[in-house]
Amino acid sequence: MATVATLPNLLSACRIVLAPVLVALAATGQHHFFLGLLAVSLATDALDGYLARLLRQESALGVKLDSWGDLLTYITMILGLWLLWPQLFMSEIWFLLLGIGFYCLPMLAGLFKFGVLPKFHTWAAKLAALLIAPAYFVLTLWGYALPFRIVIAFHVWVAIEELLIVFILSRNQYNVPTFIHARNLSRRARIQLQKQRQKMQDKRGRLQERRSKKREERGDL
Hints:
8 helices, mainly alpha, 2 domains
């Protein structure tokens, strides 16, 4: 239980729990409470990964909780925009659809190739998660859309890089910072596989040698 109930995991779980609360606030027209609680949720997103590395409490469960927390937070942000600021939602609909489409592409590709949803947590994805918060608040509070559109465009690159990682890797990996890291991981895996095959060939060669020696000894007798 001690390894599960870590501070980073609790922060990620908190973000998951806050998602339905945020939707309820948006549905009841609570603009200020929605933005305030969303700020808290986004703050947990910024802290959980940092604390996991700082406290050396990184885990597969933490990666999954963080990924689900990110997904639910993005969904609540879109629903909040639709319910509380419908005019802004309609004015940014094409950028939202672009972001949603590219967000789903690497997930579907990873699910098809690995059988599970990828959780790479690239550096670009972490930067995009940090940038979306101020862009969203600037959009909803002042109606200025340019930062939001720039961040959506950056999310497109995040998705493209994650697609590259899916195509490069032969098996699912957690926490792959960039596609260059994925290429290095793939290269090391190939080298390791070649070494294993070479060992197997050497082992078979030695076994054949022993068998031939035994046959020769029997022939001499």
